[in-house]
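task queued by scheduler; priority normal; single chain, no ligands, no partner chains; default sampling; output format set to structure tokens
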Amino acid sequence: MKRTCLLVLLALARFELSRALPASVRPGDRKIYVDGIPLHIKGVNWNPVPVGRTHPEGIQFAEHVQNDARLLAEAGVNVVRTYEPITDTVVLDALWNNSIQVMNTVYSNSDKAPESVVGEVELVKDHPAVLMWAVGNEWNYNGCYTGLDLHACGQRLNEVAKLIKQHDSLHPVASVYGEVPPFDVIQRLDSIDVWGINYYNMLSFGDLFQRWEARSTKPLFIGEYGADAYDASIGKENEEEQAKATTILTGQLIDNTAVWDNGICSGGFIFELADEWWKDGKGSVDKQDVGGIAPGGGPHPDRVFNEEWWGLMKIDRTPRKAYYAFASLPVPKPQMADVVMMQGGQAAEGMVKSCTAQGCTLVPLPRHELQPPRAAHPPAFTLPLPGV
């Protein structure tokens, strides 16, 4: 009898592990749900490219997942976002075992055949670590990375989203835009269930949440935000200011979380877990370069995108102060609404550049900066270095 009960329990455990646990969305509801519970994404963009390698050929999910998943879990991360698809169930198992799900980007470059996503979706759609699929990354700036015009790129992404849904009716499909997408873009891409926005504008999201509220009732998350660790204004690394931006901006996502009534945004993904040394096109993949662009808007404190310095950790996984700042911040729950007051900005006359490294969009100038939450102190623990 005991043996029979044990076999039944083992079978149930295997069933539970293999059961998909997708996000779900509801018409007219800004929340993202997982297992019926509103989700706030405490997320990190994850693109593990080691020294001497380039993206996308050099991405090493399998080689880095065991260590990175531990580091992510210790920072309280519940979702990672990728720029290329994870189709290896061993990688997904490691993330899931650390209570981390994946916003799995299966399409961003229009040189890729749309039908190729079918096999990728079929491979892992039943894995509980897959939260949702994503198509496109700030594609209004890069034209699906092939220079397509806005309409053609959007049409391609919508086509891919429809194709995904033909093979997976459970998981939502998200798309990430650079800045708040225009109303007509949201309407045309009718197969996109959830929208993400990449946003870098010093220490504030300004009136971004209010502008989204006026344009759509679909769920929103921030696809990229944060600050790099290199300060061009002083010509050296500045961990303190990166940590400051991490604390303030992540706090504003908490203040505006959709898990509470009248909230707008379901959290977001800070950019990024670890530095990547391939990103300065004028530099070497074997050393960290300081090249960057200053398009007129951008990250704190210098408005310069120093592309190889964005990690909460260095490329060898040595934590920066921003890692500890991020780790100290909570994931808001619906019951926290009584003890935390939400706040927001308002639009006024005038325009300001809202930029990512790919380009800029003119947006209304906020009248008031959002009030930053109280700075968090680094947690009193020592993080083991890789291999220790």
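post-processing summary
- The chain has ten helices and 17 strands.
- The chain has one domain: 19-366.
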